[in-house]
Amino acid sequence: MTIERQQAPPLQWVARWLDTELDALLDSLVDGELAELPELAVARDDPRAEIRHSVRVHLIALADGLNRSPLEGELTLPAFISRHTRALARQDVPSLPALLRAFEKIHAGVWQRLTAALREGPFHVAKERRAEVLEQASAQLFAYFQLASNETASAYATERALLERRAMSQRSTVVNGLLNGSVTTTAAEQALGYDLNAVHVGYVAWVDELSDLDRLDTALATLSEHLRPRQHLSVPAGERTQFGWITCHNGSWLEILRGYRLPEGIHCAWGSPQQGADGFRASHRDALEARRVGETTGLARGNRAVLFDDVAIASLASRDLCSASAFVHRQLDKLAGTDELAGRLLETLRVYLNELASPTRAARRLHVHPNTVVKRVERIEAMLGRRVDPASLALRVAVELAPMVRLQPRSSTPLSSDPTVPVDAAPAPRASSG
C-alpha cells in the first residue's frame, strides 16, 4: 500500500518517506558531503561513519518535527547537536564555514530526493497534491535547517570564545611572569609561541570608552597589516588597555607608525626597539613611559601614535616633576604660562628649534607665513629677555618639558608611575585577536 492511497497529511507523508528511505538517503548525502567538502574528513579516524551519524541525527530530528503539528510547539534540535558542535569547535576541525556549508548541502540533497519521490516510485503523489506537499515540506525544511545552522553557529562561536578567553588568560599570566622575571625565557617561548631572541618593539594601546574595544581590535589588526611584523603578540591589560609586542624584518615600522592615523578615540604609545628577553621588558617600559608623557602633554589626544624616542627627553627629565617645573619656569618664564598666547608661542618655539632656527621650514610645519614665524620669535625673545639660541640644550629641554608642567602649579608633586608590573594590576583579561 502506498502513502498516496493512505492520503496521509503532507508533512506526515514527508516524515514517513524520510523514515523509509533513511539509509539510502544517508548514503547519498554523505557521499555528496565528502565529495564537495573534503575538509569535513580532516583529522578523523572514521570520517564517513562520524559524518553519517551526524546527518542521521538531523534527519531523525527533522522527521520528528514533521510528525508533530506546527501548533504543538517550535522546532527543537536534539541536545546532542550542541554537544557535538562544541566538541568540534574545541578541535577547530572542521571550521564553522564548512559546517554551515554542510547544512546547505544536506538541505539541497533532501530536497532533490524529495522532489524525485513525489514524481515516481512507491512514494509518488498525485499531481493535484504535489503543490501542497511541496509547499509545506519546503517551509518545514527551510525552518529546520535555518534553526540547525543558527544553533550550530551559536554553539561553535560560544565554545571558541570560551577557548580564546582561556588562552588569553594563560597568555596574560605568562607575559606577566616574563615581565616580572618569574617565568623563564624558554618556558615563555613555549607557552606563547613567540621567539624572544629577536628585536622587540612594545606598545600600549587604549581607548577612551569601553564601547570602543571592538574598534581597538580592528584598528590594531589594520595597523598590523601595514607593519607586516614577523611576530605579533598581544594581551589585554585592564578594561580599556592592550599590551603588545612586534618584531619586524627592518626599520620600516617607524616610518609607517609616524604616518599612520589612528581612529577617533583610539590611542597608542610605542617603545624603542630592544633585543632579547631583557629588551622585551625594556621596550614595554618605554611604551608605558611614552603613554605617560603622551597623556600628560596632550600628544596622545591626537590621531598619531606616541613614540618613546620622540618623548625620551621629556620622559627622563620629568621623573621629578617638581624640579622639572621649577626648571621650566626659570628657563621660559612667561612662556610657561597657561594662556592661549603662551601656548601658541611655545609651540612656535618648539617647531623653530626642531627646524634648526629656519623660519621657512618652521612656517611650513605651522602652516603660516615665514614672516609670522619671525615676528613670533621676536616676541618670544622679548618675553624671555634674551635671544633664542638653537644650540642651547637647556632651552630645548625646557621646551620639551613645558607641556607637562605649564598647567601644573609650581609646587606640584611628581606623577606616580610604576611601569614594572603592568599586567598584575590589570583586571581579568578579555578575549581579543592575537
Automatic annotation (TrEMBL):
<dbReference type="InterPro" id="IPR025736">
    <property type="entry name" value="PucR_C-HTH_dom"/>
</dbReference>
<dbReference type="InterPro" id="IPR042070">
    <property type="entry name" value="PucR_C-HTH_sf"/>
</dbReference>
<feature type="domain" description="CdaR GGDEF-like">
    <location>
        <begin position="187"/>
        <end position="293"/>
    </location>
</feature>
<dbReference type="InterPro" id="IPR041522">
    <property type="entry name" value="CdaR_GGDEF"/>
</dbReference>
<dbReference type="InterPro" id="IPR051448">
    <property type="entry name" value="CdaR-like_regulators"/>
</dbReference>
<protein>
    <submittedName>
        <fullName>DNA-binding PucR family transcriptional regulator</fullName>
    </submittedName>
</protein>
<feature type="domain" description="RsbT co-antagonist protein RsbRD N-terminal">
    <location>
        <begin position="23"/>
        <end position="171"/>
    </location>
</feature>
<dbReference type="InterPro" id="IPR025751">
    <property type="entry name" value="RsbRD_N_dom"/>
</dbReference>
<comment type="similarity">
    <text>Belongs to the CdaR family.</text>
</comment>
<dbReference type="GO" id="GO:0003677">
    <property type="term" value="F:DNA binding"/>
</dbReference>
<dbReference type="Pfam" id="PF14361">
    <property type="entry name" value="RsbRD_N"/>
</dbReference>
<feature type="compositionally biased region" description="Low complexity">
    <location>
        <begin position="418"/>
        <end position="434"/>
    </location>
</feature>
<dbReference type="Pfam" id="PF17853">
    <property type="entry name" value="GGDEF_2"/>
</dbReference>
<feature type="domain" description="PucR C-terminal helix-turn-helix">
    <location>
        <begin position="345"/>
        <end position="400"/>
    </location>
</feature>
<feature type="region of interest" description="Disordered">
    <location>
        <begin position="409"/>
        <end position="434"/>
    </location>
</feature>
<dbReference type="Pfam" id="PF13556">
    <property type="entry name" value="HTH_30"/>
</dbReference>
<keyword id="KW-0238">DNA-binding</keyword>
